[in-house]
Design goal:
alpha/beta; Rossmann fold; six-stranded mixed beta sheet; 12 strands
């Protein structure tokens, strides 16, 4: 048994080495089925970190030698669909699939996985249907509703009223923003707000695509429109740290009308974000190179750690090893990070903080 384990480990190491050398040659142990980890390519900071953490976990699995594992990074929806189709053409070598769906266009593809009886775990973006729900091992995600809920709770604590204006800057049109919006509304409803009152206060942006630049463009367009009344108490609920960074760059730049900006900042109450980007944590520590920690409005970020992908992959490993005690609705709690507690949380990515 020891000799077999050593041989398997050496083969896994050979597989990893050949990949690193770019030879394109993959060597598997005879009984090492593949765990495929499917994620979007690094189109912004959070997905880039997911890709990094996924590769770290895959390397760990390959070094162990019980399974083989590989990361598939998709450039777009069609590319991810093709990747899945290619995998399903040889299911005999598949132990299972861990997938962060590119967007809701993957529904029929996920149903193909379910119909092929290939075990699969959804990560972050969850697509539901009767076929998918009947077969998915687990939906591993951060508490997206919790992000919206905790944001609304903080806003109310900071003094949000029904006479104010909330600009909600969404990420995309997947389940993630839907759940964050739902959580935000849920807390306000618990405080006695009617749907009509919420709709009168909370206005959504177009999808930012989780992009700092797009977020900045949408913010500047909104700021320059009649929708933005600088005399009102304004609140901005963003769905990602990158979007919030774009807004702060704009507020610290020269693109906005100075007189309107001056009045806006007097009545600007809070800017919320989410994920755990190292750069925004630097702002919260007041160690950013160009942006100072605001004292005129409340800045905070709700955790949504990209390292959760490791937990999603581990869920698949446990299932493949015969663990049947896995919660299908696998939700990881979130926490509010501000200038008071930022030192207690690990950021992702890198940022050179000023001394």
């Amino acid at each position: 048994m020891k000799f077999k384990k050593l041989t398997t480990t050496l083969l896994a190491a050979s597989m990893l080495a050949s990949t690193l050398l770019g030879t394109g040659i993959t060597v598997y142990a005879d009984d090492a089925k593949e765990i495929a980890v499917m994620v979007p390519s690094a189109d912004h900071g959070w997905t880039g970190a997911v890709l990094t953490y996924a590769q770290e976990k895959v390397d760990e699995i390959n070094a162990d030698g019980t399974f083989s594992a590989k990361v598939y990074a998709a450039t777009d929806v069609e590319n991810q669909i093709q990747q899945v189709d290619d995998l399903l053409s040889n299911t005999g070598n598949l132990a299972g699939i861990v997938i962060l769906p590119y967007d809701n266009g993957l529904q029929s593809t996920l149903e193909k996985i379910a119909a092929a009886d290939v075990p699969f775990v959804q990560f972050d973006r969850v697509i539901n249907s009767d076929v998918i729900d009947a077969k998915v091992i687990a939906n591993v995600k951060g508490d997206n509703e919790g992000i919206g809920y905790e944001t609304a709770k903080r806003f109310i604590e900071d003094g949000l009223t029904k006479d104010d204006y909330v600009y909600e800057m969404i990420g995309d049109n997947s389940s993630v923003p839907e759940l964050r919006s739902k959580g935000f509304r849920t807390y306000l409803q618990e405080q006695g707000w009617s749907d009509e009152e919420i709709d009168a206060v909370v206005v959504k942006s177009a999808a930012t695509g989780w992009s700092r630049d797009t977020g900045k463009e949408l913010f500047e367009s909104w700021f320059g429109s009649t929708q933005c009344d600088p005399a009102k108490n304004n609140w901005i609920f963003t769905h990602d740290d990158e979007i919030a960074m774009g807004i702060m760059e704009s507020l610290n730049g020269a693109a906005l009308d100075e007189s309107k900006k001056e009045e806006f900042l007097k009545n600007f109450k809070a800017l919320s974000a989410s994920s755990g980007l190292a750069e925004i944590y630097a702002v919260l520590k007041d160690k950013h190179q160009t942006i100072t920690l605001p004292d005129s409005y409340d800045l905070f970020s709700v955790t949504y750690d990209p390292a959760m992908i490791k937990e999603a992959i581990e869920v698949m490993v446990k299932h493949t090893n015969g663990d049947t005690d896995i919660e299908q609705n696998y939700v990881i709690p979130v926490h509010v990070v501000d200038s008071e507690n930022v030192g207690e949380y690990q950021a992702f990515g890198t940022y050179e903080e000023k001394e």
